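User: Design a sequence. Structure:
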């Protein structure tokens, strides 16, 4: 792999109740456990950050494949839901649902582009075979 870019971040404090910052200072956030897991929910959490990153990355891949295909990807959007739960080994596991909006395309073409984007997106390639990722179409 030829590395095109490297992001760097440092987490400090008490893990999920701490702080995270990128070395360039563009991301600088307080971290707190969500209320659903017994935390204060005052800050963000790793699942929210992962959801935002995956949604943005997948949207970029979707627009890339759509533009290459000559499809109208205007007003497109990608939502990501990242779930955190217990696995069968006493640890934790993630799952992801990506909701794709391509309002100017018929459902079959939109799904085909979403499937292609799922093969291109670096987050999809990193998670494939590791966590359950569902790619669905939004009800536009």
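Assistant: Done.
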């Amino acid at each position: 792999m030829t590395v095109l870019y490297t992001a760097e971040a440092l987490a400090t404090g008490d893990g999920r109740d701490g702080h995270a910052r990128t070395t360039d200072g563009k991301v600088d956030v307080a971290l707190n456990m969500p209320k659903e897991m017994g935390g204060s929910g005052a800050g963000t959490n790793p699942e929210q950050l992962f959801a935002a990153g995956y949604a943005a990355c997948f949207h970029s891949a979707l627009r890339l494949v759509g533009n290459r295909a000559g499809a109208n990807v205007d007003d497109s959007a990608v939502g990501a839901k990242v779930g955190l739960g217990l696995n069968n080994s006493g640890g934790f596991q993630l799952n992801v649902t990506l909701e794709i909006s391509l309002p100017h395309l018929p459902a079959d073409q939109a799904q085909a582009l979403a499937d292609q984007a799922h093969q291109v997106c670096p987050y999809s390639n990193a998670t494939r075979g590791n966590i359950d990722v569902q790619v669905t179409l939004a009800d536009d």
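The radius of gyration is 17 Å. The chain has two domains: 1-44, 46-137.
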